[in-house]
Amino acid sequence: MHRDTIMAYVESNIESTFKMFTGYEGGGENRLADYATTKVELDENVCLGHGYIVELYPGLNITYSDVTFNQPTSFTESAKDYYGACLVIEGCVEVRVSQGSEPITIDKNKALFFVCHEGELEFRYDTSCTKLINFCVPQSMMKTLFEDDTGRPFSINLFESVSVTNDIIKNVDEILCSKLGKSAHSLYLQGKVMELLALIYHNMRQKVTVCCSMTPRDMDCIQLAAKIMEEQMESPPSLIELSRQIGINDNKLKRNFKIVFGETVYGFLSNKRMVKAGELLAIGELSVQEVAHRVGFKHVGHFSKKFKEQYMCSPKQYRRKSVHPV
Question: Would the pTM count as exceeding 0.70?
Fold first, then answer.
């Protein structure tokens, strides 16, 4: 990513921009915000938006934020005993883990897995709307993942970009949309955080295997294939057409795509269609039929069936709950 050459970032003080208010009683735009224990209010001269923190038990918490900065802005924050992952729902964030290092870009396709015993992190935001969910876990929980992994010592800092899969997206959506009561919701979130951690760590480990069995060019081709299918979901190319566009044969495309993303090309496309459909329905400006056509379905009945399989409710019910949350 080469944004540094064309974008000037304004340094901001995180203490003055983000103000914490504990004892928050809930009442946000999603169920995670409803059960937040702390609300984060922002300096309107710097950005618009809000954040919520849900403390589940000591060392285990979830943070959700929805921010739009007035100009490209960076923050530097000291981190100690910081273990978990960050996922972007909308927009993107750049993270630098040390001065002069290459930035790690987190967006809806790439999560950040982190083990930070101590260090300084720089976060860079542009002026687009950025929604992200971040979770931290106790050191003991993170350490258990490394016990049988001699190739990755737990004693050193680790920041790794990890591909976001269907299972991860579904897990995040369930965290944001759970309708359980408060006490049950807390236990539910603890389980979902542990599930997310396991899924992201598994994908990170899979990435190591992939890199050993695939050339850098093949990896680039598969990433390009995923981008094409997502950008052209309304009228996607066939596998033969896609393989010609990215420059590898269709057999290698199918095999390597399954290795990288853990699902077939069309399984990936189906997931991305449902995610996009959920976003459009939540905005509430389009009819169900218009959303179906926008994500590549000719027949609204087929779309509704697939949507219900993914979200356990009809498109109309999903839109009603999102636009008018109860």
Answer: no
